[in-house]
Amino acid sequence: MARAYSLDLRERVVAAVAAGASCRAVAATFKVSVASVVKWSQRFRATGSAAAHKVGGRRPFALASEREWLLGRLHATISPLSASPLLSYGGFNESGP
Predict the structure, then answer these.
(1) Phi-psi bin for 57: left (phi > 0), alpha (psi -120 to 50), beta?
(2) Other C-beta atoms within 10 Å of 30: how many?
(3) Are 33 and 27 in contact (CB under 8 A)?
(4) Residue 82 belongs to what domain range?
């Protein structure tokens, strides 16, 4: 994975756009993509900084808030089942093969 561009470069790009240069001209001057210039400018306008977002780290589980509900559903689904239908499916009965 490529490294993020330096904050110094990002700030110079944003300053050039703020001074009135077009995104295409700034991209050509600093040899970065037009999309990067646009994203950095938007991020600067929204947050006041063109710094890169943090990369990596631990993210919370997507279903953490639904854990209790999921466990309840799991227990409700599995508890009515007994071992005998499961064992007889494989050709075994409860007393053995």
Answers:
(1) left
(2) 16
(3) yes
(4) 63-97
Is 24 domain-assigned? yes
**CA dist., res. 43 & res. 72, Å (int):** 43
Give pLDDT tens digits for 73-88: 777 766 555 545 555 5
Residue 1 in domain: no
Tell me the DSSP string of 10-76.
Answer: HHHHHHHHHTT--HHHHHHHHT--HHHHHHHHHHHHHHS--PPPP---PPPPTTGGGHHHHHHHHHH
In a domain, 52, yes or no: no
Number of folded domains in the chain?
A: 2
pLDDT exceeds cutoff 50 at 13: yes
